[in-house]
Records
---
Amino acid sequence: MENARGDREPKGHLLVYAVAAASYIGVGIFEKAILNWVTGPLWLLAVVALAHRLMRRKVSGPAEPAATPQVPPLDARRDAA
Amino acid sequence: MSWGAHQFETYAIQAHLPKRWQLKVSYLAIVIGDQLPDFIAKFWVYGFNLNGRHYGAKVPQQFHRGWPGAGWSHSLVLGFIVVALWLWRTKDRPWSRAWAAGFILGFGAHCVTDINDSVGTMLLFPFSTANFSIGTWAYAATVKGGKYLDAAAYYSSFGLVMDLIWLVIVVCSWRVLTRHHWRTRVVAADPRAWAWLGRRLSEPLLLAVYRATFFYGVCRVVAWTVWAHLITGDQHPWGLHWGGPDFVTRVHLSSLPVWLVLVTAASVLALVCYVADRIVAGGERQPAELEPAAP
């Protein structure tokens, strides 16, 4: 969705909010204690944070295994000493 | 009391700021101002149970909106005191007036919106302890029923209609929820606060912070309505008539004519707008105007 000035909303943001709303409402109907002005906003923030993290992982691909320094086998080190 | 309306009205205010107030009113302050009255009073209205004993107001409506009680939390004088103290303590800060104006707008909206239930608010406190109410729906916070009965009653009455009206107003002004509006109007009016948050949160999360109040409002309207009428519908029949629903006892603290209540509420809103305008205008004076005239 693009506004007048060309500020693009991130792809899929509506879906993220819909998932947050559906989950919050679904749980809230049966666990009414979460229907308060602290948990509600925090629920949305948590879902958005999680979705953003998943989207970033999908875009950047799986992480390369970190290069580890080559450690000689124990026998080689003892022989060298 | 009002439920989702107090979330939606903050966006309605933001979306309909007059041109001369654009970029000069903090949205975060509107939210804080709108939430403060119930933040002060509502916890003790519902109370809590501990070791089989209930702790809370013995007469919820008296404590919530009356005097003696915490009814001053819903009177404009508290809003003016907070704003005066705020301006006094932060007068040299560039964001001071934006927050003061936003706060009084949100606070005033809450006080006036709550005249719709049968208990109303002390709009003229401390000059008068009369409660101004038009009784659109029954005030339903009780010791025995607590929050759940209150919610069921509200979402069986014209309270639900009120929430939906405010929701429609926001939906018709949907641009107020867009990223563009947030960047160019909300952040621009309050750059320091959003910069502070921005050092801790990514942009998607900042946007979510901005939209969180709307999200919570929509979700609570849907969740409570579904619970009241689909899960426990046999206990909570609809009461879509003036002063409903009928399954709660209608309580009130004063009996003032509706015309007087409406005139007073309109006057209070006008005063709030005037004060907000003066606060905003006070920040527009050029430096030369502030220098004393040469002898």
---
Amino acid sequence: MEDGEVQGVTSLLPSALAASAPSSRCERYPPSVATSTTLERRLVAGDRTVLKDIFDEFGPTVMGLCRRLVGPDAEDLSQQVFLDAWRSRERFDSSKGSLGAWLAGITRFKAIDHWRAAGRRPSIPSADAGLYEAVEHDVDRVVDHLVVTKALTKLPAGRREVVELGFYNDLTHTEIAEKLGMPLGTVKSHMRRGLESLQRELEASRG
Amino acid sequence: MADQDDHTEFSEVIDILAQGPSDVGDETPPPSVWEAIDAELQAEEAKRPHERLDHRPFEQGREASIGEGEDYSRPATNEPESPAVSLSDRRTGRSRRGEYTAMIVGVAAALLLVGVPLVLALRSSDSNERPEAELEALAGFEGGGWAGLDDRVLTVDAKGLAPVEGSLYELWLLKFEDDELSDLVWLGVIADNGTYTIDPDVDLSAFDVVDISIEPDDGNPDHSGDSVLRGELT
């Protein structure tokens, strides 16, 4: 990615401004929450070039999710998701959840809208309205499931292991403590913090 | 999970975890998806300058606005978002024609003009002399100045830019079409004089009005609407 150079300003700059004149792209953006990623910072700062990078990072997941949610209209829906992400970038709040969860939320609402619009077509008999309600519910179920699964993979190793062993392997806290050679209290703490993080991501994907 | 009664507050997440991992897999989007996104955003960016003309404070026409000291009705501050916003919303480096915009949040003056080398046709003037502008005071301001353009370097010398607590003077190039402001680019901060290199992407035959404004140091990069000096490069 090209680096920018400050070209417009070569004259008298108040010293505070001169000190802040960035020499590389990374330095352009103000420091923000320690946990937010570079992509998130660039998005919030309005860097138009970040969208391609976000697309590269999240495109396959969004596309796969759209395929599951709307089938043949997946390409179109994916396009709408990223356009919406750019246009509503000011609404992204990294303190609420990750960029991935936010994109999943946009996908959720776009898919629901897609099915609602389909339901309103005159050729669909009103008796089938219930079908589309079921589909909305299914959209939520599928998106929730993916968000939690992805969030789990992003947990720090200790918490991830504990949650996986507890839920995918159905072990008790004590069994986990034995298996991992960890104090029981630590296991419980990891479990709690892990579930809290997953809950947060889930909520962030619900808007 | 065997101990799940310990975590009833997370019952929803727990129910989801109990289903095992999601089987929704990734799918590589075809190139057409990104192409469509990019095309739509570029189309949006291209049409914005014309959508956002504001006739204040230039409704008296460009001729009157240069050097005659007419009284301008200034745009109200804290103008709500409207399709016609005058000099605001312009801190975008390359007046939205570039490939990307970069905005610094919270600092009034740090716009980056990124150069992509282009063959630029300079103003085809019948005179071989370099373009110069006499900067005249606007709207009750006392001062004046001069600007000269050598190739793509603008030299500005201004008088009367008294320091004001909490404000900065900033330099712009304005583009007028049919006597209406259609676009502007920010060049930097000015105290009294300086030289400014103009981004190669800026069409100097179109952006030929030098403008100095007074800007509150409030982190808002948009033109305040309060121009103090202005002159046309001829």
